[in-house]
Task: inverse folding
């Protein structure tokens, strides 16, 4: 029986069921988003709390005697963590270091010089050895790591070609790299970047501790006497120490910076103007600066297992 009224009511009921189903799905998604957001907020809060505790433990644990020490350090701890995360994200992808790269890649060639130096840096590193010998990484074809090294610029006198004439005793700058050190050897680039955040954080806190300790030791007798009379100005007062920490951490750009620098070097290691047409290599370096006088070239690198095994076999043969 084809009753128009019944057909209309059936259609209305179906539409109503569809409406409620859509609303239910919408509410379910809202609830799921709310739970995810709440979990992220909880994780972020725990991250900041852990950072605060690390700061306190590494500098002066007496600060825990100040009731609101966590709240007073939370904002500045958040700032330094976010700043460091931004620096790590700005680092370029991992650089392949192998025998071919020493010849073909100008950056690898300049940073290491020759294959022997590559072998020394990687194959003699205990962490790299442990990585390749571990059964946990038996299926990994390469190791990733964070490379730190020092750049040394030296003013010298040397010959320079000017047109068709060789001019002697010209003021020049030679560039050399040394002090190669690997850290955070691991299975992939994400692992190294995560470890790099912790390494930079620890270095910043150590730097701040040295700075404040230096200020304490440089106090005159009069300043120390006034500190005893006025505890709110005494650097040995944990509450005052918290304020000093928060002030320094609150301006992270002054504590740690990642400088993106271009450098042109000729085959003799002499620094040239960036727009020079002479035969040379144009390098892009990332230099980490902590404080005013602590600067290191940094790079994320990857080294193949095949290179490691070849070097080990060559050394044993």
Result:
């Amino acid at each position: 029986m084809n009753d128009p009224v019944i057909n209309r009511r059936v259609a209305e009921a179906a539409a109503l069921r569809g409406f409620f189903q859509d609303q239910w799905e919408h509410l379910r998604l809202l609830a799921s988003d709310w739970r995810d957001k709440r979990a992220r907020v909880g994780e972020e809060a725990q991250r900041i709390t852990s950072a605060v505790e690390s700061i306190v433990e590494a500098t002066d644990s007496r600060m825990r005697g100040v009731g609101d020490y966590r709240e007073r350090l939370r904002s500045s701890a958040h700032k330094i963590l976010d700043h460091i995360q931004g620096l790590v994200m700005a680092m370029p992808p991992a650089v392949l270091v192998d025998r071919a790269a020493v010849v073909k890649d100008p950056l690898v060639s300049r940073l290491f010089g020759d294959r022997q130096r590559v072998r020394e840096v990687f194959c003699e590193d205990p962490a790299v050895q442990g990585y390749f010998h571990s059964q946990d990484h038996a299926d990994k074809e390469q190791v990733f790591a964070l490379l730190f090294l020092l750049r040394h610029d030296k003013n010298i006198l040397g010959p320079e070609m000017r047109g068709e004439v060789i001019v002697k005793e010209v003021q020049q700058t030679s560039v050399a790299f040394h002090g190669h050190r690997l850290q955070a050897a691991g299975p992939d680039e994400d692992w190294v970047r995560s470890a790099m955040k912790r390494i930079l954080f620890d270095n910043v806190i150590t730097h701040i501790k040295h700075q404040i300790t230096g200020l304490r030791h440089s106090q005159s007798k009069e300043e120390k006497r006034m500190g005893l009379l006025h505890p709110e100005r005494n650097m040995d007062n944990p509450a005052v120490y918290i304020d000093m920490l928060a002030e320094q951490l609150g301006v992270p750009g002054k504590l740690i910076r990642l400088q993106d620098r271009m450098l042109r070097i000729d085959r003799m290691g002499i620094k040239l103007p960036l727009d020079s047409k002479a035969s040379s290599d144009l390098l892009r370096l990332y230099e980490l600066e902590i404080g005013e006088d602590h600067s290191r070239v940094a790079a994320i690198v990857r080294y193949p297992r095949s290179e490691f095994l070849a070097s080990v076999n060559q050394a044993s043969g």
Observations:
- The beta strands are 95-96, 142-162, 165-186, 256-265, 271-272, 281-290, 294-304.
- The first helix runs from residue 4 to 59.
